[in-house]
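hi!! sorry for the late reply, been swamped w classes. u asked for the two structures so here they r. pasted raw, havent cleaned anything up. first the sequence of the first protein and right below it the C-alpha cells
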Amino acid sequence: MHAKAIFASVTLTVLLGGCSLDDSGPVRSVFRPADGQPFLSAVVYLTDRLPDPSAAGGFGNKWADAPSCGIADTVLPPAGEKTNWGYLAKTHPTACRSENGSLGGAVKLIEAQAKTKGCRSVLVYVHGFHTGFDGAVLRTAQIAHDAQTACAAAAFAWTSEVKLNRYAVDLERSTYAQPLFEEFLRELSESGLRVTVLGHSMGARVTLATLSAIGKSRERARPGFIDELVLAAPDIGAGRDDDDFVKLLRAAAPYVRRTTVYASSNDSVLALSRSAHGGVSRAGENPAADYASDAAHEIDLIDASQPPADALDHSYYAMSYEALYDMALTLRSVTLADRLKSNGVWPPTLVKNDSRHALATARCPRLITRIMIRLAPLLP
C-alpha cells in the first residue's frame, strides 16, 4: 500500500474510533421542547428483510425476497440528551396484501394513519448504505417530527447489511429492492394521497432507478404523483463523462412535480464512494452543479456544505437543524424565493451566494470533517 494511503487509513481509524457511523445507530431529535419529553410516533414500514426475533425491531440484515409490512412504535428523545437515544418500542406486523393490491395492506395503514391525523399525505423515507431496520424506522420518525410533516410517515427498509466493508453487497441488495419499491409507489399513486419521498445516499439511487423503471414499464404510474422528491447526498455518478444522475432525473420527471437535491462538498462518505467508483464524482458532493437545465421538471439544488452534522457530514439532512428547517418548507412546496426571506412565521432558511442557494447558517464544518474530506481521496 502507498505510504499516503497507509497514513490516511491509520488517521481515519484514530479519528473515527469513538464515532458511530451507522445510520441505524444513535437517533434523536435535533430540537428540544420546553418540557424535555421524548416524542412518541408510529411509522408504517415496508421491508424485504428476513424476520429475525433477535434483531432490533424484529428484522435482521438478510434478504428475504418477500415483503413484510406493519407499524413500528418509536420513542425519540429530544436534543441535549447525552446518553439517551431513540428506540423501537414495539412492532405490529400486518399482511402486506389486500383486496386492493399486493401491498394494499401497507397503503391501508398509511391511509388510516393519515385519516387519524386529519390529513391526506405521506412522507416516504428510503435509507442509504449501512443502515439497519431500526435505524431506517427511527430516522423516518425523526425527520417526520423535526421537519413537521404532521401526517403519515412510512419507511422503505431495504436490506442493508450494516457493515462498513460491505458497500458492494449493499449496492447489490438495493437493486433487489427496486421491484418491491416500484409496486409500492404504483399503489401509492393510485391512493389519491399527496406523496413526498426522501431518498438518502444509496436510497436516492434506489428511488431514481425505480422511477426510471416505472417510466419504461407497460403500466405507468399516474403522472406527477410525487409532489416533492428530496434527494439528500445522492450517491449517483455525475461526472463529466458519466451523467447517470441527469439521465435518471429525466426519466423520473413525468412522475415528480419538483425535485430538491441537497449536496455538500464536505461529505466524506461520498468522497470515499467516488474513489470506489474509479474517481467518478457523486451527485451529492457537487453543490455547484447545474441540473435544472438538463432535466424536464423543476429541480432545486441546495448547498449544504456549511452546517456541521455527524463526523463524516453525510447525514446533515437529518442531523443539522439548518437542513431540517429548510426541508420542512421544501416538503410544504415553499419556493426558493420565499425561503430566502422571512415571512413572519419562519426565518430565512437559505442564502444566495452568487447563483448558488445555500443553507442559512453561521456555523462551520468541524475540524474532524475538514481533516477527513482531505484524507478520503488518499485511501485505496
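now the second protein. again sequence first, C-alpha cells right under
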Amino acid sequence: MNNIFEKSKKIFSEGLNYLVNEDFDNAEKKFLESYELTPDRTSIFSNLVQIYIKLEKINKLNDFLKKNYKFEETFDYKIGLGFLNFFKKKYQTSLNICEGLTPNNSKQKVQTINLKIKNLDDLNKFDEVITLYKEILSIEKDNHINYYNFGTFYYKIGKPKEALTYLYKAFEIKENFHGLKWNISLCELKLGNYKKGFFFYDSRWKNKNQNKKYQSIKELKDLKEVSNSKVLFWGDGDGGYGDNMLFSRFLNCLPKKNKNITFSTYNGLKKLFKNLEKDINIISSKEVKEKDYDFQLPLCDIPKLLKLQNFKEVPYSKLIIKYDETEKNLNISKNKLNIGLAWCGNPNYPTDKYRSIPLKKFSKIIKFKNFKFFKLQTLLKPEEANEFKSFNSIEDLGQKNFYDLSKCLTELDIIVSVDTSIIHLCGMLNIKAYLLLNYNNHWPWFFNDKKTFWYPSINIIKQKKFNDWSYVFEKLEEELTILYNNKFKP
C-alpha cells in the first residue's frame, strides 16, 4: 500500500512540474496516472478539475465530476460544477452555485468572483462586472493577471482609455506577460495613437497559434535596407483578407526606386492585388522561394518602420481595375434599388458575435418591395440556411472570387456590410457602401460613427449602445429609402 502511495505521489509531483510550466496536456496525463493509483486523494481531483476549467474541456469536466461525486462537498467540485453550467450557458444556475460557495482562502475567493464575472459579462451586466473586478483588486493588489483581465474587459466593451489604466498597471508588475503588449497596442491604436500603437503591434506574434513565416530570410529592420535589396513583404498568415486589404496601402509608402519588392498574399487576393502597384511583384504563398530574398517582413509590421507621426499621414490610394464595361454580370433590377449585402464574417474571429448580425434582423428590409438584395459573403451559417432560402429573391454571389466580385460591386447601387473583408474591398475600389458597425468595434474604425479616413466611399452606421442594433436598422432603412427616392423619384 505504501509503495502505491509513494508511486502516486511521485507521479503527482511530475504533474505539478508540468503544471507550473503550463504544459497542461502532460500535467493532465500525470494526474490521471496518479488518480488511478490513489483515486481518493483530494489534491489530484482538485488539480484535474482546475485543468479542465482552464482548458474549457466541457465533456471531460462533466464526466469527471459525475465519476467523483464523493468530493461533492469540496470547493473544487462545486466550482467545477459552476464552470460547467457557465460553459453550457446556464448562467443563473452557475451564479446560484457561486452564491452557495464558501471559499477557504483568497485564491478560491478570487476564482469564485471570476466565475461570477464570466456569467454577468455574458449577460451584459457590465456595471456589476466592474464592481466585482474592483473587489478582486482589493483582495490581490499585486497580481498582474487581475489588472490584465480588467483591462481587456474594458477594451472588449469599447472603452480603451479605461482599459489602458489597468493594462499599464499590469505592465508595471510584469512586462513579459502573454497577450499584454498586444492588448496595449490595440487600445493605443483605437485611441488614434499611431506611434504608441504600432510600437507593440509586432507582439501579436507572441500570441498562441500565431507564428511568423519565412524565418530563413533575414527580417527587415530598417527601410533604408530596401533600396538595393530583394525584399519579400507577406500578408498570407498575417491577419485575414480584410487586414491585407487595409494594410496594403502601406506598400505605397515604400521607397520607389526599388524594383525588387515582392508582396505575397492569399491566393484569393492575388488577382485583385495585381492592380495594386506596377513596380511590386504580386505572388501567392505557394510561389515563395525563400532563397530568392535578402529580407522579409510581415505586411502589418510596415507601419512601425515608417516615419509617420499620426494616422492623418497614412495615404489613401484607390485600387484601379480596368473592366470590360460592356460585360454585365448581374441580373440587375431596373425598378428597384440593387443592394449588396454581407451580414456576417468568419465565426472564428474573437469578437465575431459582436460584429456580425443575425440574418433574421434583416428580414424587414429584405422584404421591402423596392429593394433587391445580392448576397456577397461566402459563408452561410448552417443555422441560417433555411432562413436564407426563404428569402428567394436574394441572388447569391458568395462563390465568386474577390476579383470577379469586385466587378459585380460596380453594377450595384449600394453595398451594406458588417466589418468584414467586403467593406475593405468596397473601400479599396472607392465604391459607396454602408458599414454597419458594432459599438465595441475593431481599432481601425476608432470612434468614428459617420466617416472613416481609411476609405472616402464608406459611410458608417454605428450602434449607439453595446450589442444593440436597433438604431442601426432604423438609420439603414432611412438611408436606403433616400437612395431609392433619389434614383427613381424626380
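hope this helps!! also noticed smth abt the second:
The CA atoms of residues 149 and 167 lie 8 Å apart.
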